[in-house]
Amino acid sequence: MADSKKILIIEDDEDISMIEEAYLQSAGFQTKIMPDGKAILDILKSENISLILLDLMLPGKNGYEICKEIRDKTDIPIIMVTARTESVDKIRGLGLGADDYISKPFDPAELVARVNANLRQYDRLTKPASANDSKQEEIQIKDLRILPNSWKVYKGDKEIKLPNKEFELLKYLAVNPNIVFSKEQLFEKIWGLDYIGDSATVMVHINRIRDKIEDDSKSPQILETVWGAGYRLNK
């Protein structure tokens, strides 16, 4: 899988960017390094980038601003790389559309594992449906319609745009309705990695989905929190 994939590393610390590049190249990926995000939109237009490793603290535009700018143009995976450990920083990045994050200092095996997991999921979501897959029926929940193979969601007649992780999370809950899943179970299923004890990732994605599919996200009727247990999609 790695041979044709190019990873864009946006990192102003040369030592860290070279370490990331070495790990990724040893795993078979192509890489490109940028010290800041000033030319990010030009790079995305001119090069076939499969995933972005985005540092949070950058000169000029910070990682939050760059993440939003990228997400407005493309849904390719974004993994935020940060030395900060406060949950509020992770939540803010995830809330702006990042798919995942990894904290410095990181283990090289974890970096490669997270890149691979995010690429695998993105490939699953964007690959053309086979003849058998195309027969899969849409999922109807109240006024919500989920079209699994065309990666589309409608609320009434209006199409709702969901980035890859949000779509995958909603689809998984929709094909398993009325079942309570813990944060740990959802993280391992959707992110493809062992749960690492941080609930921010799942929580933020659930909240972003609610903002888009619920009539009142503060009092959700479709995507419900079961306190002390996890989340359930009501059908």
Describe this structure in words.
- This protein has 235 residues and is an alpha/beta fold.
- The strands form three sheets. Strands 2-1-3-4-5 form a five-stranded parallel β-sheet, sandwiched between helices. Strands 6-7-8-9 form a four-stranded antiparallel β-sheet, covered by helices on one side.
- The chain has helices spanning 14-26, 40-46, 63-71, 87-95, 108-126, 164-174, 183-190, 200-213; strands spanning 6-10, 30-34, 51-55, 78-82, 100-103, 139-141, 144-147, 152-155, 158-160, 223-226, 230-233.
- 38% of the residues lie in helices and 20% in strands.
Sequence of strands across the biggest β-sheet:
2-1-3-4-5
Q: Summarize the helix and strand pattern as letters.
A: EHEHEHEHEHEEEEHHHEE
Integer-rounded radius of gyration: 18 Å
Name the helicity range.
25-40%
Query: Which spans have pLDDT < 50 for at least 5 consecutive residues?
Result: none
Number of helices: 8
Mean pLDDT: 86
The gross shape turns out to be globular
What structural category arises from helix and sheet content?
A: alpha/beta
Strand content: 15-25%
Record field, number of beta strands: 11
User: In this structure, how is the largest beta sheet organized?
Assistant: 5 strands, parallel
- What is the straight-line distance between the termini? 37 Å
